[in-house]
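Sample log: Kinase.
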Amino acid sequence: MATAPVEPPRRLVTSLGSDPAAPVRAWLAALPSAVHERLDAWGLTLERVDAPGGRSSLVALVRQQDGTPATLKFPVPGRLHAREAAVLRLWDGWGAVRLLQADEASGALLLERLQGSVSLRSLPEARALLEAAGTVRRLWVAPAADHGFETLSDRTEEAVEALRTAGALTPTAAPLVEQAAELRRALPSSATEEYVLHGAFRQGKVLAGERAPWLAVGPVPVVGERAYDLAALATDRFEDLAAGSGAAAATRRRVAKLAESLEVDRDRLRDWTRYRAVAAGVRETASGDRRHGELLLEFATWL
């Protein structure tokens, strides 16, 4: 039923082009055929492939047989995206985009259509944080005994290794990297709560919708404490804080306000925020964005 051509967006190709893994290269090469196969199987009409799109998935705007708009998503295959369909089913549209269909073999997801160009980042910072807090609160649910999601403890050693590998390319950040590695090891084992978390929550992951004003997308589900989810939100738009006067004090106020509004332990939120800022900072620096990376590392010191 598709007539428009399917070509992976340049941003996706560039993002994955340096990955030497043969499965990733094979996935990229097979994407056009995989998209057309899903369009035919689900009776969809392709409008266009979203561009510039993301760095870890192909997104296409489609119409269902009754004309209802929807979004077809093909995440990069791998462990991080393996449970996206499962967590979307768990939330069933409560605070998050609604899953319409999923194909386990290809990883394809058919989702309700949201306004992809309108995220919380379009709002003033104070309003964006308020809406983000209200959205993420809906996503935090108690895990079932047989939930099947990874836990923060499961990911600890891998996260520490990735942090130190990237940090080795930034020798001046060695003290921060070591402190962040110790936090990453200690925090999961000392947590006193467990929730199903979005795992990658930030303002850009909350889009405008019709069924609800704001809905979360792009989860990388993990089970752990709520402070982990809030930590990425605490670092959001950190450039705005850096551009103002009293950046360190403003950063600490933001963390305190988020902790209070969602009844999360402030010290644990501060520690998770420090870890996630350092991890992101050394990763950005290692990938070549030294200015952005160094600013993230400076942000970590403000906490």
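Observation: The longest helix spans residues 266-286.
Observation: Residues 10-116 form a domain with the Phosphorylase Kinase; domain 1 fold (CATH 3.30.200.20).
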